[in-house]
Amino acid sequence: MKKPSTSTFIRLNPSKTGGALNVLYVYDRKKKPFPLKESVLISEWDDKSETVNLINQRAKEINKKKRDLETDLLYVAGSLMENGIEPYPDIVTQEYEKFLLGRKQKNNFKRGLKAVVHYELDEVESSLKELELQKQNILSQRKTIWREAEKYGFEIQNSNSEETAYFMLLLKEFVIEKAGCWIDATPEEKRLHNDGTKKGWRSWANNLISWTKSRFFSNLETVLSFKQLDKTIYESYGNYLMNPQGKHKMTDNSFGGQVKNCITFFNWVTYEKHVQIDNRYKKHWKRLSEEKLIINLSPSEIDLLWKEEVKPHLEKYRDLAVFGCLTSLRISDIKNTQGVVLDDNGFLRGRTQKTKGNYKIDTKLDGRIIEIGEKYEWNLNLCTEQTFNKQIKTILKSLFIKYNINQRKIKEPKYRWGKLIKDNDLKYKHELFSSHCCRRSWVTNMSTRGISDRVLMEMMGSTSLSEFNKYKAVKTIHIRNEVEKTAILQSK
């Protein structure tokens, strides 16, 4: 017998801009198209590889559907051949319909079985919750008995040590899940999980543990437990991290980030581990924030930076800064530009690492976008965010001194518990610059060019207007325009 084959083609619509995809089954020169029930544009279809390219957001889904249909048709044809039946298209069509019916019946059976399993699991989970409640009641009774015994001079081991041990056990499991390793991991393990996000989770856990060993925690006369997450615990945690004489000296914004991680952890304990905890954290553990001083580079400053000759080992930091200012992409997005697609229309497409949004950057905004991308063959995973933040400050300091700009120190407003810190130091602009300032520069400069907020949000893959506004510096040009207009009228 001859060997059957399949291929996929696009059946063009009348306008010939796209069409419906069909899998063509061929045996002994006889052909039969099987509709895939998917349509794509001509620009989204690659005839050579017979696949939908990545500019179509559903490319992976459609390509998998195509492969599955081809596999099923060849499977049906192979079954016929094993039984000595030549797999002509008409016979394959009939057998394929029977094949789909059998698959549907099998899936229905699986769904029924799955429902029974879920029902039984729900009963088990319910029993586990009852046991957890019983355990907590017993622990509470034991705590009361030990407190009463201590009144009469009996020295008994702290009853809450088990609760603290359980808290630490789940904290360690959570951090390993988020960060890849625990805070006491070997240097080699930490190198394997060295990106900023993972290091941030380990730093948060370290800060949390150091608080429990401080006088701020011991003054509470309690233990680390999921059973007490009220306002007093929250305030003690905040006073420790924001203590001006302490190790961390955090302000509202940085403390808010620590609280965000705590809430994520508490939610994980509640919904993933089904542990009953003190729900007062949902009301009292507030994420403080402060108005950020928006530091950005103007178009003229970006031009100076781009033209600045720097030492060869510093070029990549200069280029990354300019690229970020021209595209809005964060260092985390830039580092992962292997996910970027430069489509035929000149748009950079991909997903942001932090918010998982879809960005669509028009490279016609500035020719330097393509120039920088091609310089590094679009592999811009050149450094860590921490290294970038350190080196770009050095480059900007030299640049600003050279052109005698930004030589006036700036006061960055900082708050603790909503109160302005009066003794906050003044800093130069270059000292306040970090990778996020590139994104702020893009938003501010594009807005000044007259591009609407809606379009800018779509381009940068942002869905939150409040988050978007944090990146946009207040424009003052309209004030200057009004002043100049008034001066002209008075002179007439």
Main β sheet profile: 3 strands, antiparallel
How many beta-strand runs?
12
Mean pLDDT: 85
The CATH topology of the largest domain corresponds to hpI Integrase, Chain A
What Rg, in angstroms, do the CA atoms define? 31 Å
Number of domains: 3
At CATH's second level, what is the architecture of the largest domain? Orthogonal Bundle
Quote the beta fraction: 5-15%
CATH classification, class level of the largest domain = Mainly Alpha
How would you describe this protein?
The structure is a single chain. The chain is mainly alpha-helical and 492 residues long. The protein contains 18 helices and twelve strands. It has helices spanning 59-82, 89-151, 161-179, 187-192, 196-212, 215-218, 231-241, 252-271, 281-284, 299-307, 315-327, 331-335, 368-375, 385-402, 435-448, 453-460, 465-469, 477-491, and strands at 5-12, 18-27, 30-41, 45-46, 51-52, 341-342, 347-351, 358-362, 410-411, 415-416, 419-420, 426-427. The strands form five sheets. It has a three-stranded antiparallel β-sheet with strand order 1-2-3, covered by helices on one side. A three-stranded antiparallel β-sheet has the order 6-7-8. The chain is flat, with a radius of gyration of 31 Å.
Give a nutshell description of this structure.
The chain is mainly alpha-helical and 492 residues long. The protein has 18 helices and 12 strands.
Features:
hpI Integrase, Chain A, 492 residues, three-stranded antiparallel β-sheet, mainly alpha
Please give the structural blueprint:
Layout: E1 5-12, E2 18-27, E3 30-41, E4 45-46, E5 51-52, H1 59-82, H2 89-151, H3 161-179, H4 187-192, H5 196-212, H6 215-218, H7 231-241, H8 252-271, H9 281-284, H10 299-307, H11 315-327, H12 331-335, E6 341-342, E7 347-351, E8 358-362, H13 368-375, H14 385-402, E9 410-411, E10 415-416, E11 419-420, E12 426-427, H15 435-448, H16 453-460, H17 465-469, H18 477-491
Antiparallel strand pairs: 1-2, 2-3, 4-5, 6-7, 7-8, 9-12, 10-11
Helix pairs in contact: 1-2, 3-5, 11-13, 11-14, 11-15
